[in-house]
Structure formats: structure tokens, C-alpha cells
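Entry:
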Amino acid sequence: MAIARLINMQCGYFISDIHITLPEHPRTGLFTAFLRTLSGGKNISHLFLMGDVFDLWLADHRYFIDKYQSVIDEILRLKNEGVEIHYFEGNHDFHLRYYWADQLGLTVHDGPIYVELGNQTLRLEHGDEMDPDDRGYRFLRWFLRTPPIRFLICRLPGALIVRIGERVSATSRTYTSKAKTIADVDAITMIRAHAKRAYAAKPFDIIISGHVHIRDDYIFRDGTKRFRSVNLGTWLDAPCYFKIDESGNHFFELSCGDMAQST
């Protein structure tokens, strides 16, 4: 994987696993309220949506666009204000390119990427391939992205695709439930083991992931080697985000909080 440089990044926000379900759900209001606190040119230059922003989104079907227009409007506002937005496919939102990239102009990723920020290298990913032993999900992930399935998802009627999508979403939960229901200590062990494997394959300074629904921030120290693993957690527990400010000292801060006061 190539390493891309983040141009003119003053402040980046990383968010994952919001699992927006209904327009009227409180979590939808919390997320849109959070987005309204951000303003391009003032307090944000880059926004990274690290997957499972929606509990279900497939391709560019009108059903999803109409259903989540309030969220789309806030994301599009930030883009129009000059914010560079990256959207990573998760296990509940995929085939994103057809709408979020081709129509809205966001940058969409279907797997891990490496980016440079100053003298720091970041590995960014949703994290749904974190468990090497989860062969059932790995097969499902591959199958849903094969050309014939992609063709069907993009062309079937909206009502039918929603029914299929809900079944796929439920199946995805089944295949990934192990990683999301094990004890916190075991989940953290899995997150950190993945970080070590990824670092051994291609070194970085920080790996940022989601998917597992556990917030974790850990620094590995091994002789002269030092790298950081950040798992973003989920808004199913409480609104949270990871923020990186670029300054002379490259100061990093993990920020979590209740956005209810902003609604």
C-alpha cells in the first residue's frame, strides 16, 4: 500500500461505529450536533469516517440518501467549507464509492491505508479484518465485494436491496459478534495483537481503527521502537472521537464526551 501525504492538515477528527439507524434516533441527533460544532477553516481540516457510520448503507440507493439527508447535509457542508473527508467502508456500510465518492466527492477506502502527517506515519483502517481466525466473516467480506454481487447491489430495486441489506447486516453481526461480545480485556488483547502484526508487516507511528467497540489507547515500547495503537470505540456507548492537531510538537489527544448538551 502506498503512503499518501496529508496536505495542510491542521486538525483531523477520527470517528467510527456510530451505527445510525433512524433519522429520529437520538444518536442521529447527537452526531449531527457534533458535526455542527465543526467548521472548515476554523477547527477542522480533515475528517475521517472510519466505518459503520450507518447501521446499513449500500451503494447509492435513493432509500438511504433520503433517509439520512440530515447527516449528508452536514458532511457535505464541511466538504464545501474545504474539509478533506475520508470515508472507510465498514461491515455495515460498503460499496460507498458510487455515492460518497462519485457524487459527493469524498475519498472512499475499502481497506487499510497509510498516510504521512508531518514526520508521523499513520495506518488507518476500519478494523473488520482484525481477527485472522474469523474465517466466516472474511469470506463474507470477500463475497459481498465480488463483481457479480456488487452488480446486483447497485441495480436491484431499493425496497428489495433494503431487505437484503438488513439480512446481510444481521449476518455480519453474527460473524463479528465474537469480537464484540468477548470480555473487554480479551478484546483489547486482540486489538493490540493486531497492531503488533500490522507494525511487523509495515512500521508506522500510530494505527487508528474501530469495529471492535472498545476504546483503547496504548503505546508499545520495544527497545528503540515506539508506536501507538488507538481503537476508537463506538457511539453505542457514548459519543467519542480521536483528534490529532498538527503543531510544532505534534500533540495528540484522545477526546470523549457527551454531546447531548449540544443538541
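The CA atoms of residues 143 and 149 lie 7 Å apart.
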